[in-house]
Amino acid sequence: MNFFARPKQPLAVHLANVAHIASAFGQHFGLGNEAALAGWLHDLGKYRSEFQDYLNGLRSSSPETQHAAYGAVWAFERQQLLQAFVVAGHHSGLHDIAELQAISAKQVLGLPSALVNSIERHLAECPPLEPLPEPDFIVSGATSDDQSMRTDMAVRMLFSCLIDADRLDSASWPSTPAPDMPLNADALLARVEAERRRKADAAPDGPLKTRRNAVFDACVEKGVMHQGFFSLTVPTGGGKTLSAMAFALAHARQHHLRRVIVVIPYLSIIEQNAAEYSRVLGRDVVLENHSAVKPRMDANDEERDALELAAENWDSPVVVTTSVQFIESLLSAQPSRCRKLHRIAHSVVIFDEVQTMPSHLLAPVFSVFRELVRQYGVSFVFSSATQPAFLKSSSLPDGFTAGELRPIIDDPAQLFRDLRRVDYHLPAKDASIDWPHLAAQMTTPEHSQSLCVVNLTAHAATLWDRLRSALPESQHKTLFHLSSAMCAAHRLRVIQLIRWLLRNGHPCRVVSTQLIEAGVDVDFPIVWRALGPLDSIVQTAGRCNREGRFERGEVNVFRPAEHKIPGGVYRAATEQASVAVARFTDLETAEESLATDPSIFTAYFHSLYSVITTDRKIDGTTIQEDRLELKFRTVGEKAKVIDNEGQPVIAPFGAGKRIVQAIRERQTAPGEPRFTRDDMRRLQRYTVNVRQRNFDELLHLQLIKPLLPNLNIHVLDPSCYHTQLGLVMPGNLPIQDMIV
User: Which of 308, 335, 517, 694 could form a disulfide with 539 if both were Cys (CB 3.0 to 4.6 A apart)?
Assistant: First the structure.
């Protein structure tokens, strides 16, 4: 096969293209000129002789061929602080202010004359570089702290414009990047309304159908309210997912917004919601984004490019993502994470199951959200059946004022009473149950359709194995496990089978971790829930008698004999759940309140926020204090939704194996990338996160291998992926029936 190399792009053309694209991005929030200047500056250092020699093959990559510092120094010396930050970090990531000052002092530049020579060559091919005044919105009527926070956010948004423009031009040259698909709010709202009618026609008449329709209608009507923060409090099973999208589209239509971003909890199953939205709105409309691969810390600029060209940029009208992706991107210093930020401007963000928002990051997250609303035209919908106490209080001083967070549903308490479908059974103070006895309860004939949610992946595997031993072999195919050890495609396949069995009255027993609690549309007559956070218990109850097929479903809360729970906020929330229940005079009263009174969660969350930190403090400073000091890299290191989140690897499951093979066998023209953003999008459903210590062990045992040479994406060996349990470490299998 014959290929022709892409023509080499002249540097001046690249700079002009990036300036133009970045400017178009920045114009959406008043930073078009600032973004254009960053585009002209970002590769100024490539005019140096050392870099030109590198491009022409006359020398290898080395510190002398690095280029980002030169444009940054030009900007810093002329008090162009925004451009100095974004240009200096456009490969290695945003720096702390002290690092930027060191760069500006030429401590890492070598001969000062190199900058002068670069500027002379730049001016010979490009328009003059002219400093700009500081943007009005940063300094106008603001205190010095406000100015710092506004500068922090402006740097992040400008950085996003530059990164996306730079990577898009590099990936598409000699063509031009394809334009974003516009959000047609009228057409999409019509599709959502058609889906509501379809579901209503299929549902039996009754209170549940009436209340769901009322919720939907309220969401469409309230969509005309002016932009800002909204709460949508609807019991699980009340049609919240579709109604929230109806509000978002009605709101986008009213205010001419650019996209809808749906944020799903990191413990949830994002692919179900993305698949549902794709079915209703169209596959070409919805982008699913939940995986991110980080470049190696020791990678140089050019080695990072393959991953950064493939990094997600949220160029679709509807984006479904995780809270990990959304929150960490807002506070990250990494180019690959920040690339998509500019597309949040003039959007509606639905924060689904908002009670899972990381408590240790509430203060910085609320601060960033307020700035997005104030300056960048964003509206937020906080959606939940167990709405947390986000109003300002002594336990949450950064919370919202009464008029700042506006309810979409006027009387959620009455809605809870109308939609009650379960009875709770709470454990006595010292009562506990071991796995064999719990397995015996779940395997009785009357409990042939049952769900148990536990706190740890290890507990899920153990109980699944106990159930397998207790059931006859003929029922093994109707026993299922769900956890984050399984890749998304695997979980979705299992959930589809679970739904089919439940709908058709077949036996179906499921053991799951918390990921089934938020937004997973399954309906069991009876569930068990290991003692955990109060909101998690109620979310699990949302998987019970969801469609009102029985007078009441049963929710059995139990204390495992092996009562280990995750640490940190999860442990604190579990303890506060016990405190909340203990406030009632007896268990019967507590059980009734859980089923009918949403105000119990106000007291619960107030208590939780009073015993935990809402702004992570490490090395003597909080994230908010670091943001005031413009310490971007420090903030990015602290602002983790999940500590030790690990490394994503590609699981050898289903179509993932074929995608891996096709990428490895692909023939490309010289200069064409072997791995693209489309590849990343196709593979993300086949990735599973591995804890760092396990990743290192698998790497040492050669049980994970690079997808492509010199690419920091790895593929898991089939011997480590179980047909039911997903990822398993060597020697940790409870049974031996491998492999996919």
Answer: 517
* CA distance linking residue 461 with residue 479, whole number of Å: 12
Q: E-strand spans in 588-686?
A: 617-618, 621-622, 647-650
Give the span between the Cα atoms of 682 and 580, in whole angstroms.
44
Tokens representing residue 660 in the block:
């891996």
Beta partners for 320?
A: 262, 288
Domains of the chain, by residue range, sit at 11-172, 185-291+308-414, 422-611, 647-727
Given a contact cutoff of 8 angstroms between Cβ atoms, the answer to whether 590 and 423 are in contact is: no
Q: What is the pLDDT of residue 302?
A: 46
Per-residue tokens: 216: 């939907």
548 close to 518: Cβ distance less than 8 angstroms: no
C-alpha 657/C-alpha 653 separation (Å) is: 6
Q: How far apart are CA 349 and CA 353, in angstroms?
A: 13
Distance of CA 161 to the CA centre of its chain: 20
C-beta separation of 85 from 159 below 8 A: yes
Residue 587 amino acid letter: L
Q: What is the pLDDT of residue 298?
A: 46
Task: Express each pLDDT in 215-227 by its tens digit.
Answer: 999 999 999 999 9
CATH number of 422-611: 3.40.50.300
Angle of helix 81-88 relative to helix 97-104, nearest 10 degrees, comes to 90
What pTM, to 2 d.p., does this model score?
Answer: 0.87
Q: What distance in Å separates the CA atoms of residue 312 and residue 314, rounded to the nearest whole number?
A: 6
d(C-alpha 96, C-alpha 85), whole Å: 9
> Which CATH architecture group holds 185-291+308-414?
3-Layer(aba) Sandwich (3.40)
Helix locations, 347-487, DSSP H: 362-376, 412-418, 435-442, 457-470
Using alpha carbons only, how large is the chain's radius of gyration in Å? 27
Q: What is the mean pLDDT of the chain?
A: 87
Q: Which of 362, 350, 342, 356 is nearest to 319 (CA)?
A: 350
Count how many Cα atoms sit within 13 Å of the Cα of residue 676 in the half-sphere of its side chain: 14
Determine the pLDDT at residue 178: 87
The two structure tokens encoding residue 672? 């064409």
Residues pairing with 433 in the sheet: 560
d(CA 624, CA 635): 8
Residue among 128, 632, 44 at smallest CA distance from 335: 632
Q: What is the pLDDT of residue 548?
A: 81
Per-residue pLDDT, 65: 57
Residue the block writes with tokens 């670091």: 626
Please determine whether the domains at 185-291+308-414 and 422-611 fall in the same fold group of CATH: yes
The encoded tokens of residue 552 equal 């009441």
Q: Where are the alpha helices (DSSP H) in 361-507?
A: 362-376, 412-418, 435-442, 457-470, 488-503
Residue 8's CB is within 10 A of a number of other CB atoms, namely 11
Element (H or E) spanning 162, and its range?
helix 144-172
Q: Which of 580, 273, 419 is nearest to 557 (CA)?
A: 580
pLDDT tens digits, one per residue of 473-516: 999 999 999 998 999 899 989 999 999 999 999 999 999 998 88
Q: What is the pLDDT of residue 61?
A: 64
The residues facing 716 across adjacent strands are 704
Q: Cα separation of 311 and 555, whole Å?
A: 42
Number of H helices, E strands in the chain: 30, 21
pLDDT at 299: 47
Predicted confidence at residue 266, as pLDDT, reads: 62
Segments in the chain below pLDDT 50: 1-4, 107, 109, 111, 297-303, 733-740
Q: Phi/psi class of residue 646: alpha, beta or left (left: φ > 0; alpha: ψ in -120 to 50)? A: left
